[in-house]
Amino acid sequence: MYKIESKDQFLLRHVSEALNYFDIPIFNTETKSYGQIFLESNKKKIDLSFQNTQKSILLPCSVIELVNEIKIMILDHHVKFDSLFYYPLKQILSSNIASIRLRHIHNVITEEILKNSDQQMSKEYLYKCIWPNDHTIQPNKLDTHLTNFKNILKDSLNYNLIFKSVSGNIKFFN
Hints:
Layout: E1 2-6, H1 9-21, E2 26-27, E3 35-41, E4 45-50, E5 53-58, H2 63-74, E6 79-81, E7 84-87, E8 92-94, E9 99-101, H3 104-115, E10 121-122, H4 123-130, H5 139-157, E11 162-166, E12 169-173
Helix pairs in contact: 1-2
């Protein structure tokens, strides 16, 4: 998740809505993030900054132009995940050996592992993150996907994902 900040609440709200629409993982309130995107506006331009990258866009511009510039800025950004590198926007996990494109479910699992790396989470919470509209929780369905993900990481990236499941809670270790 990327944190987006701006003193201009109008700009913040509309850019946040557009980023969410295009499935770019952002938030305004959580504390853990992959990085912060700053938006600063004046009458002539909007300044974007992310880590060591800055970009100015002259006004008038569309929200789509802003979203495209933000995507370009964060496209190659990665998060270190033990010995792996996770590219959130590309949904790729890579190691020194290879790279794999994550399916949606495995991408959500990876994001939740990173967001909750220092604590355990309930299986019900993880299940609802993956299948928010599924009203009947099926623990075996989640266990199957976790095992498949673990096997894919082992086979493709030679990475051993270790997790412990006790009393409906799950903890990942790296």
